[in-house]
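Final report, closing paragraph on structural work. Over the funding period we assembled a curated collection of sequence-structure pairs, and we close with a single example.
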Amino acid sequence: MSLSATVQAALEKISLQPGHVGFYYRDLTDGSTAGFQEHEPIVAASVIKIPVLVEFFEQMNEGTLFPDEEFVIREEDKLPSCGALNYMHTGLQVSALDLATLMIILSDNTATNLLIKRVGMDSVNSRMRSLGCQGITLRRLLFDSEASARGIENTVTAYDIALLLHKMQDGELPYSEKMLQILRDQRLNGKIPFWLHGIPIAHKTGEDDGITHDCGIIYTEKPFIVCFLSEHTDVPVFERCIQDVSRDLACSAN
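Its predicted structure, as stored:
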């Protein structure tokens, strides 16, 4: 099957998935794109960590934040679920760059909230607007149950996350290659990379109740960006869709 036919088949498959989904594809060789509800805001879960990473390196580039800046992990900083820092001893000293790395490769929630507090929510949102990402908004810290109960959620779109990844790939952002290196070191590889053994992939996942995402760059012979977002979905069904569509697109791009 040709790549264009595979992309069309992917769109058809995505459109049949349960819940609210968003999808975006960009061929990095010829610039062709395709999308399904790619401008629809969807609850971000851990994909919001990509915009936080961008703001971290922007501030590092501006000299207002330093990679070796030290953070002391307090007991009240520790958050459950993804990550490593909540299992470490209270009083552990961690550098800012270590926090940024853990935030991505292990989706560390403790690291994420520490960085959000350090760089500032307003700074993240202002940066996203300046980069043309109108559909990305950071509204609260992770695990802020009070804000969540009031319906306050971080949101992203498939198009805007793909735009950030494209800017990284083109070297348009400060420390673009460093960010891509961190994303390529991702340890949570059960979605886009599931069938793609041996193919480098720079990506970030997101999960919550009824939510599953994965967005990244697949470095096949003809590399491409692909973003899958979903909410109110059947998580196992949509994750199988992510795995299979990623495999089909990668096979056609080699």
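The beta strands are 20-27, 33-36, 42-43, 70-72, 93-95, 155-156, 201-208, 211-218, 224-231. The chain has a mean pLDDT of 97. We thank the funder for supporting this effort.
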